[in-house]
Amino acid sequence: MTAVSPPRLAFDTADPAFVRLPWARYEEIRALGGVVFNERVNRWMVSDFAPAKMILTNTELFGSEKGQAEQAGVFGGPTMEFYDGPHHDRIRAIWSHDFRAKDLAALRPMITDVIRRRLEPVLARLESGETVEIVSELTRGIPTEVIARMLGIESAMVDQFSAWSDAMGASAEGYTNPGARGEALIAAGRQATAELNAYLRDEIGRLRDAPDDEPGLIATMVRHQYARSHMTEQEVVAGNTQLVFAGNETTAKLLAQIVATLAEHPDQRRAVHQDRSLIPAATEEVHRYETITHSVFRDVIADDVAVAGVRIPEGARITLLLGAANRDPQRWERAGEFDVSRPKLSHLGYAFGLHSCLGMNLARLEAQIFLEEFLDALPDWQVHTPIDFGTNYAVRGPANVRVSTS
Ligand code: HEM
What gap in Å lies between CA 352 and CA 345, rounded to an integer? Predict the structure, then answer.
């Protein structure tokens, strides 16, 4: 196989300056051919849309299973995300119907209610001239309450679920950036996982003895024939733990990003306010343009593998830079511009293939209802800049967004 050596770079993926503005670094990688080795974090990195999609599609050459040891730390056991074979498909199938767009449509009233109740006090404060930080005061709680209701968990636990899930999310930085701070984040994340696991284990135990018509996603898994015969107790607990976690920080950041990006583009916000049929395109364009999950990884599991002409050794770990792929000029015209009216073209914000996001239709529905309600209540708003994006580039998004109306 003809292949060239990779260009080498060394940069810290947890550097707040990189997390806030990764775009120049992404273009540097693209200019170097789209495949580099980052010595600082010991990862190969891929920036372009076509090779990233190829890697996500090709499970013969690129696998997820080696990540199970880390996964066990994050979720307390292996989940569907870290199996590539039939076991993955069977676990995923347990909930796949619940996350289809047509089935989720029935949840619209519940989601609207969650959003309105949380928006109301924020609006009252904004109307009285206050500046409100909307991540902590609004967007963070929405996906947690929605998934808690879907799982069948009592509302009183929602804040505790958010706290557990935040600590678990922050531990991602520890895995990509080892060091004293990384170790502390991993330890706090493991503690949160252990507590959430314990809560869910009790709930799962209760549901095993409950009547068959008990509602909720935990009950769906507990009752499912495949889970009963082929999944360990640890997998059932970890699977539900993953569900609590996966959609929280991600969706909360997407909602906050929608508010921030539309404030930065008042003309397009006005267009969406006047023509609500633009809402799905607007929320997808915010996601493409900013991207929330900037990094997913795959391991090279075959010999003699090349990506964009660069040979990558078996066993190497590749970071797919989804935020860079979503601004690939070979796929989008004016890729670096925000444009709610651009032609519809799928992006990689929810990844692709076998492990594409199970909850993407739920995240989309929450984003669309959120924007509809926000525009109804508040046609005009400002966001205080610069926005702090924190240090987590795996799930990148505003750590806080201060909003005012005057
Ligand atoms: C804006 C919000 C969200 C974003 C950006 C997002 C992003 C992603 C991405 C990029 C992946 C693929 C990971 C990989 O290939 O390694 C993924 C997988 C997954 N997501 Fe999401 N997600 C979001 C919301 C949700 C929600 C709301 C749920 C469920 C409540 C969810 C559940 C999952 C699960 C279970 C997987 C693993 C799927 C599998 O391995 O087959 N996500 N998500």
Answer: 13
Residues for the chain: how many in total?
Answer: 406
Q: Give dist(CA 23, CA 18) in Å, integer.
A: 8
Distance 48 CA to ligand 1 centre (A): 20
Contact partners, residue 99, CB within 8 Å, separation at least 6: 358, 359, 360, 361, 362
- Secondary structure element (H or E) that encloses residue 36, with its range: strand 35-38
Domain 8-404's class? mainly alpha
* Cα-to-centroid distance, 58 and ligand 1 (Å): 18
Q: What is the pLDDT of residue 4?
A: 59
- In sequence order, the 6+-apart residues with CB closer than 8 A to the CB of 246 are 357, 358, 359
| Percent of the chain at pLDDT exceeding 90 | 81
pLDDT greater than 60 at residue 1: no
State the distance from the centre of ligand 1 to the C-alpha of 81, rounded, in angstroms: 9
Query: Is the backbone peptide bond immediately before 386 cis, with ω within 30 degrees of 0?
Result: yes
Report how far Cα 49 is from the mean position of its chain's Cα atoms: 18
* 97 DSSP 8-state letter: G
Using the atom order of ligand 1, give the atom closest to the CA of residue 366: 27
Residue nearest to atom 11 of ligand 1 (CA): 357
Which helix (H) or strand (E) is 306 found in, with range? strand 305-307
Question: Domain residues of the chain, as ranges?
Answer: 8-404
Count how many Cα atoms sit within 13 Å of the Cα of residue 64 in the half-sphere of its side chain: 22
pLDDT of 328 higher than 90: yes
Q: What pLDDT score does 168 carry?
A: 85
* Residue 335 CA to ligand 1 centre (angstroms): 24
What is the position in ligand 1's atom list of the atom closest to the CA of 297?
16
Residue-wise pLDDT tens digits, 147-156 = 999 999 887 8
Residue identifier of the C-alpha nearest atom 38 of ligand 1: 355
What are the tokens at 49?
A: 């849309």
In ligand 1, the atom with minimum distance to the C-alpha of 395 is: 5
Residues within 6 Å of ligand 1 by CB: 80-81, 92, 147, 242-243, 246-247, 250-251, 254, 292-293, 296, 349-351, 355, 357-359, 362-363
Within 10 angstroms of residue 262's Cβ, the number of other Cβ atoms is: 24
172 has pLDDT over 80: no
Percent of the chain with pLDDT over 70: 97
pLDDT tens digits along 302-312: 998 999 999 99
